C-alpha cells in the first residue's frame, strides 16, 4: 500500500471510530475510562475493534466533551417536526418542537464494516429503549369532535434496531491527509411504539377527546411512526454528521499511527 493510501486508510479508520476519544491533554497519562486502543488497519479484528470503540465513545461522550468542543450525544435535540395524519373522521395535524431524542448511549454495537476503498462505514446497533419527548401543538378532529391542544408529549420506542452509514471525503495537502464525514445516514426501526400526550385541550374534555386521541395514536403507533420517520431520520442524520465532524475538527492530527 502506498504512503498516501495508507494515510487515507488511517484517516478513515480513525474517523470511523469517531477518532476514539483522544481527549487527553498533551503530557498526561490517559485514564482507563477514556483510553481506547487504536485499531490497526491490517488487523484481522479491525471491524470488531471499530465496533468496540464506537460503543465506548457513545458511553464516554454521552454528555459531550466540552473541553474539546464536542456536544452531547444523548439527548440529541431536534428543533421541530410536523405530522399531518388521517382524513375524514380522524384528521389531526401535530407540530412538535424542542424535541429530545434519548437512549443512544445505551446502544450495543452489533457490527461495524469498514470499506476503505469506497470510504464508507456501515454500523448496526441495538438498544432496549429510545425515548423522544418535547412540546407539541395539535389541531384537527377525532370522531368528528374538534381538537385544539398543546403541551408535553413522550414517545417510547422499544427493542430498537439502528443502522448507520457514513461516507467520508479525504483531501491531501502538503503530505497531510484531512478527512471529513460527507454523509451520515441514520435509520431507527423499533418493534413497538407507545405515545403519551398531555390531555390539556382547549374547551371541555367531557366527551373523552383526550382518551380518543390516545387510542387513535397507539392503535396506529407504528404507522404514525413510519409517517414521521423520514423527516426525523433526516434531522438525526444532520445531528450525527455535526457530532462526527466536531471530533474530526478537534483532532485533525491524530492519524499517523497506522502505516
UniProtKB/TrEMBL annotation:
UniProt gene name: LOC113202290
Family: Belongs to the TO family.
Name the record gives this protein: Uncharacterized protein LOC113202290 isoform X1
Upper taxonomic lineage: Eukaryota, Metazoa, Ecdysozoa, Arthropoda, Hexapoda
Presence of the UniProt keyword Signal in the record: yes
Pfam entry (one): JHBP
Keyword field contains Signal: yes
Annotated InterPro entries: Haemolymph_juvenile_hormone-bd (IPR010562), To_sf (IPR038606)
Gene3D superfamilies named among the record's database cross-references: Haemolymph juvenile hormone binding protein (3.15.10.30)
Top-level lineage group: Eukaryota
Signal peptide: 1-23
Keywords noted in UniProt: Biological rhythms, Signal
An example Gene Ontology biological process: circadian rhythm
Organism: Frankliniella occidentalis
Amino acid at each position: 500500500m502506498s504512503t498516501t493510501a495508507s494515510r487515507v486508510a488511517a484517516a478513515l479508520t480513525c474517523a470511523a471510530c469517531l477518532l476514539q476519544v483522544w481527549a487527553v491533554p498533551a503530557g498526561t497519562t490517559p485514564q482507563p475510562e477514556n483510553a481506547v486502543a487504536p485499531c490497526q488497519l491490517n488487523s484481522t479484528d479491525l471491524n470488531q475493534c471499530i465496533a468496540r470503540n464506537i460503543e465506548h465513545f457513545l458511553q464516554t461522550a454521552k454528555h459531550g466533551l466540552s473541553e474539546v468542543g464536542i456536544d452531547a450525544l444523548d439527548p440529541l435535540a431536534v428543533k421541530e417536526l410536523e405530522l399531518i395524519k388521517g382524513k375524514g373522521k380522524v384528521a389531526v395535524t401535530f407540530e412538535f418542537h424542542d424535541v429530545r431524542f434519548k437512549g443512544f448511549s445505551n446502544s450495543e454495537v452489533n457490527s461495524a464494516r469498514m470499506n476503505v476503498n469506497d470510504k464508507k462505514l456501515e454500523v448496526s446497533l441495538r438498544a432496549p429503549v429510545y425515548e423522544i419527548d418535547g412540546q407539541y401543538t395539535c389541531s384537527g378532529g377525532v370522531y368528528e369532535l374538534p381538537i385544539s391542544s398543546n403541551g408535553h408529549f413522550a414517545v417510547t420506542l422499544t427493542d430498537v434496531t439502528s443502522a448507520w452509514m457514513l461516507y467520508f471525503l479525504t483531501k491531501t495537502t502538503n503530505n497531510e491527509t484531512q478527512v471529513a464525514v460527507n454523509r451520515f445516514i441514520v435509520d431507527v426501526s423499533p418493534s413497538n411504539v407507545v405515545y403519551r400526550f398531555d390531555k390539556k385541550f382547549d374547551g371541555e374534555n367531557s366527551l373523552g377527546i383526550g382518551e380518543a386521541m390516545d387510542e387513535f395514536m397507539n392503535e396506529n403507533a407504528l404507522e404514525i411512526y413510519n409517517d414521521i420517520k423520514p423527516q426525523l431520520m433526516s434531522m438525526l442524520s444532520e445531528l450525527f454528521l455535526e457530532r462526527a465532524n466536531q471530533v474530526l475538527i478537534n483532532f485533525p492530527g491524530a492519524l499517523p499511527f497506522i502505516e
